[in-house]
Every structure is written in structure tokens, then in C-alpha cells.
# Entry
Amino acid sequence: MLAPLYNPGVEVPAGKAFGALSVRDFTTALASAEPVPGGGSASAITAALAAGLVAMVAALSEGRPRYEQHSRLHAEARAAGQGLAERLLALADEDAHAYARFAAALKLPRETQEQARARAAAMQAAARGASEVPLRCVEACLEVVAAAERLAGRSNRNASSDLSVATLLAEASARGAAANVLVNLPSLAPDDPFGREASQQVDGLLQELHRLAEATRSAVLSGTERDPIEPDSTGPAG
# Structure
């Protein structure tokens, strides 16, 4: 969702949520001349696919005697993957609506000083929303990769490559969403601390996400079985 580059007359099309469309219909909409769905929605939906893969690997591991010691992890990862997929599909819709609000602000009149001030304030508020939505997408992508990392070496080896695919999709999605955060920050009010905080947060999230993605892929390639995660363990095992 590169808001400043799009046609300011855009409106979010009425009808089904993006997550309710077939893959073909969403791809057709993405390839059209309409600015929504755009890169932000595509990033969120791609991350939802990554979350689905995490849930799938967990599901393929549940109930197998060989992986019984990791049964609690499998149940947690399956629920997490499913929940993240739903959250990311919702973010795809939110991204389109956030851009529509920015577009509406761009269309406001600015003939008088009062109108110009009102337009500037509306644009700044809309730009913040257009940054917050993809930032939440980056955060969700990190959760997807963290779930994949915990499963690596503790799940069905026949599906382990799907964890690598999940991290690749989630990392690409996170970088796409991060680009949409950063492109909207210059439109914020100069004294809005959110701009600096969001930029720093994006950097930190991407670094941690990359670390966990690399750890996941390394564990998959090695084929080494890992010890169970302790019940009171918090965060990725590393």
C-alpha cells in the first residue's frame, strides 16, 4: 500500500473480504488497474499462507507416537497457526481500508487556509493508520516464524521443508509490510513520535524475524531432533 503513489480517487470495492475470495479471484483483482488490493494486502495474505503451513505441519505431527513428547507443542502451534492466518487475512482488508482513508484525505479541498489545515490534519491521521496496519502485519509475521522455529526438529520430518517455506513466505511478507510502514511515515506530523518509534520497531522486528527464520531453516536442513520445550518456557527456543 504505497499511498502517495496511488490514484486519490480510489475506494475499497464493496463485497466479500479478500480472505473470502478464491485464489484466482484475488490474483485477478491484484493484477487489475485498481489500486486495491495492493502490496500491503498481498503481503498479509502471503503471511496467512505461511501461518497455514505452520498449522499444517503441527497437524501432521499430532497423534504420531514418534513425536508424542512434543504433543503439547503441536496443539499450541496448530492453534497459533490457525489464529495467525485469520488475523492476517483480516489485516489484508484493514490495509485496503487504511489506504482508502488516506485517499479520502487527499481529496479534501484546500482552497482556503482553514481547508488546507483540515486536509493536512486528516492526511496525517490517515498516514498514521496506514503505517499502523502494516506494522501489525510485521508483528504477526514474527509470530509465524517463531512458531515455525519451535516446531523445527520437534515435528513430522516428512513435512519439515514446509516450515522452511513458511519462514521464507513470512520473511518476504514482513519486508513488504515494513516497506509500507516506512513509506507512510513522512506524511505524519513532524512532531509525532510514532514515526521514529515505528521505524525503530520495524528494524528490531525484522532482525529478530531473520534470526529465527535462519535458525528454522538450519534446523530443518540438519534434520536433528530437538529436545522438548519445557512447559514454562517462553519465547522461541533458538
